[in-house]
Amino acid sequence: MPLKIGVLMGGPSEEREVSISTGEAVMRACQDNGHIVTNLSFCNNYKNHFGKLADQDIIFNALHGGIGENGKLQAWMDKNNIKYTGSGATSSALCMDKVKSKGIAKLLGVQTPKWQLLAKKNEIIKLQPPFVVKPNDQGSTVGLSIVNEANQIPQALNQAFSFSNKVLIEEYINGRELTVPIIGDIAYPIVEIIPSKTLYDYECKYTSGMSRYICPVRIKDSIREIINDNTKLLFAKFGCSVYSRADYILDDNGIPFFLEMNTLPGLTSTSLLPKSALKKGLGFNQLIEKIINLSL
User: Fold this and answer.
1) Global pTM?
2) Do residues 180 and 105 share a domain?
3) CATH classification of the domain holding 138
4) Is there a catalytic annotation at residue 15?
5) Could you confirm whether 262 is annotated as catalytic?
6) I need a surface site. Which of 6, 171, 194, 295 has the fewest CB within 10 A?
């Protein structure tokens, strides 16, 4: 039976264009799957769409970053009895806060790079370079820099603080970039990301041909098991639901370091979750339908 599905996309965050790409791909899939689809694209105020939002069987949350991912939108929809895809308000807010989620990972015994949280530019940084500087509550490497020398610190801090009032200083781990999607409570094939530049930045993520992807990753089964077990543990302890994607660095000694959990991973042509799902026999349209059914 066809559902009335509103696809919420756009928004005011730095990831607006990616959200629109995700939203358009989701709309096509929903239409192919026989549903009645409404485009709920907005720039600043999603509440202007209240009538249309409330009229749908479910809202497919295709936003990235900002209000779409930090729990505020989810809390508002909960209050107004509007069904939506993905994780709820509390887990969304937790996963968007990198320091809080890293703190829980550490308590659970999951390796994560050492870190320090800054609230001001002039605070003394206790970690020694090389380290990573990034806003504490942004995604898609927005505002992220790798600092190799002390003289690079001011510029890195200026950039990160322009996107957030809290900045994470994180130990730089040299290694392989891995990501593992989780749908329902099942870990999907791990993807290795090989960017064409030193840093897997916004350009490498969203420009076709700027990165290579190996799926499933070629690693020892014992390491694969650790990563999958850690991802399922974190997904449960963070209170996530339906689907997410966890990012790791696998160091030269074969130790996986957890970086962050993305509660609204991209669903574009270059996105990682669809690549992984396909390896498990789940095509894009089937993936979208699965997310909707799990959310309902």
Assistant:
1) 0.93
2) yes
3) 3.30.1490.20
4) yes
5) yes
6) 194
**Amino acid found at 235:** F
Q: Do the domain assignments include residue 295?
A: no
Question: Where residue 193 sits, what CATH number does that domain have?
Answer: 3.30.470.20
Cβ-Cβ contacts under 8 Å for 80 (sequence gap 6 or more): 50, 53, 54
Q: Are residues 37 and 101 in the same domain?
A: no
Looking at 6, 10, 14, 15, which residue is catalytic? Answer: 15
Structure tokens at 215: 């799926």
Give exposure, 112-123, as e/b (b: 16+ Cβ within 10 Å): bbebbbbeeeee
Q: Are 11 and 43 in contact (CB under 8 A)?
A: yes
* 230 in catalytic set: no
- For the segment 43-64, what is each residue's pLDDT rounded down to a tens digit? 989 998 899 999 999 999 999 9
Q: pLDDT of 168-215, one tens digit each?
A: 999 999 999 999 999 999 999 999 999 776 666 666 566 667 788 999
